[in-house]
TrEMBL record:
Its EC number is 3.4.11.5. It comes from Actinomadura rubrisoli. The active site is at 115 (nucleophile), 268, 296 (proton donor). It is an enzyme of class 3 (hydrolase). Signal peptide: none annotated. InterPro entries: AB_hydrolase_1 (IPR000073), AB_hydrolase_fold (IPR029058), Peptidase_S33 (IPR002410), Pro_iminopeptidase (IPR005944). One of its GO terms (molecular function) is aminopeptidase activity. The gene is pip. GO terms for cellular component: cytoplasm. This is Proline iminopeptidase.
Length: 322
C-alpha cells in the first residue's frame, strides 16, 4: 500500500495578477528540473492543504499548486462578503491555469484533480488539450442536474446521512425549505455576519459531513475561511459550474488521446461512482478504478495508493510531442 511521500516545502511561491483585481497564490516544490505537474484543489473554494504536495515523488516532479480565485491565500478573499464573485467562473479559472503555466515557462504538464478539481481539470484539458501530458482524476464531479439533486434534495444523500441532512435543512425556516439552494444563497450573501456566518457554517457542515467512508474528525475552520468556501461553492452550484450546456462529457473527444487514471470510492457519497463510470464510458481509453473500501477522501488508503501509483507510473513516461 503506497503511503504519502514525505512532507515537502515550496522552493518558490508568489502572487500572480490574473486580472479583474485578482491575484492567485501559487507555489512550486519538488525537483526544479522534474516533470511538471499541476494540482487542482477541490471545493470550489477549498484552497490548498500541505498534503496536496505529497501525491508526487518530489525527486522526480516539479509540483505546481495554487489557490483558486478568492480562496486560500489568493486575493481578495471571498471571506469578505463585499468581495464580488462576478469574475470567478470556470472560464476564468481555466484562463488562470494557462496564465500560471506561461508564467512558470512550462510547456506541458500532468493535471491532477480531486472532486471539483476533476471538473476544473476536465474543463482545462478540453480547452487546452495540447498542454496536458496525462491526467489523474479522483472523485469525478460532472455537475449535471441529477448530480446536484443527489446532494441538495431529500431523495439522495439525505437517506444515508439523515441527522446531518436534518441539521442542514432545519437551519432554514420551514417556509423556505422547498428551495434550500436559494434560501442558503440569500443568507450566505447577506452582509450581516450574524446571518452569513451561521449560514456558511451550516452549509459547510453538510458539505463536509460525508467525505470519508469511516468518520474522521474535521479541523476547526476560521469563520472567514468557511464564508469563502461556502460563498464560492454556492456560487458555482447555483450556476451549473459555469459549464457548457452540453456538459463535460460532450467534450471528451478532445482529450481521448491523453493517458488518464480515474479513481472513485465505491461509497463516495459526495460524488457517487456513477459519474466516474459515465466519464469512463465516454472515455474508454481512461483507466477506471473503483475503490471498494473508500468514500470521497483523497487520503483514504485505497484511494491514496491508486493515486500515487498513477503519478509514479507517469513519472517516467515520456509523452509524445503532440
Amino acid at each position: 500500500m503506497r503511503e504519502f511521500y514525505p512532507p515537502v516545502e515550496p522552493y518558490d511561491s508568489g502572487l500572480l495578477d490574473v486580472g479583474d483585481g485578482n491575484e492567485i497564490y501559487w507555489e512550486v516544490c519538488g525537483n526544479p528540473q522534474g516533470k511538471p505537474a499541476v494540482f487542482l484543489h477541490g471545493g470550489p473554494g477549498g484552497g490548498l492543504l500541505p498534503d496536496n504536495r505529497r501525491f508526487f515523488d518530489p525527486s522526480a516532479y516539479r509540483i505546481v499548486l495554487f489557490d483558486q480565485r478568492n480562496c486560500g491565500r489568493s486575493l481578495p478573499s471571498a471571506g469578505d462578503p463585499k468581495v464580488s464573485l462576478e469574475h470567478n467562473t470556470t472560464p476564468h479559472l481555466v484562463a488562470d491555469i494557462e496564465r500560471l503555466r506561461e508564467h512558470l515557462s512550462i510547456d506541458r504538464w500532468l493535471v491532477f484533480g480531486g472532486s471539483w478539481g476533476t471538473t476544473l481539470g476536465l474543463a482545462y484539458a478540453q480547452a487546452h488539450p495540447d498542454r496536458v501530458t496525462e491526467m489523474v482524476l479522483r472523485g469525478v464531479w460532472l455537475i449535471r442536474p441529477a448530480d446536484e439533486a443527489w446532494t441538495l434534495t431529500p431523495g439522495g444523500a439525505a437517506h444515508l446521512f439523515p441527522a446531518e441532512w436534518a441539521a442542514f435543512r432545519d437551519a432554514i425556516p420551514a417556509a423556505e425549505q422547498d428551495d434550500l439552494l436559494a434560501a442558503y444563497g440569500r443568507r450566505i450573501t447577506d452582509p450581516d455576519p450574524a446571518v452569513h456566518v451561521p449560514a456558511s457554517r451550516a452549509w459547510m457542515g453538510w458539505e463536509l459531513s460525508a467525505n470519508t467512508l469511516r468518520p474522521v474528525t474535521l479541523p476547526e475552520f476560521e469563520d472567514s475561511m468557511l464564508v469563502a468556501f461556502a460563498r464560492i461553492t454556492h456560487h458555482y452550484i447555483s450556476n451549473g459550474g459555469f459549464l457548457p450546456e452540453a456538459g463535460l462529457l460532450a467534450g471528451v473527444d478532445r482529450i481521448r488521446h491523453v493517458p488518464a487514471v480515474i479513481v472513485n470510492g465505491r461509497y463516495d457519497i459526495k460524488t457517487p461512482p456513477d459519474q466516474a463510470w459515465d466519464l469512463h464510458r465516454a472515455w474508454p481509453e481512461a483507466e477506471l478504478h473503483i475503490v471498494e473500501d473508500a468514500g470521497h477522501g483523497g487520503s483514504e488508503p485505497g484511494t491514496r495508493h491508486l493515486l500515487i501509483e498513477a503519478t509514479d507510473r507517469f513519472r517516467d513516461r515520456r509523452p509524445s510531442s503532440g
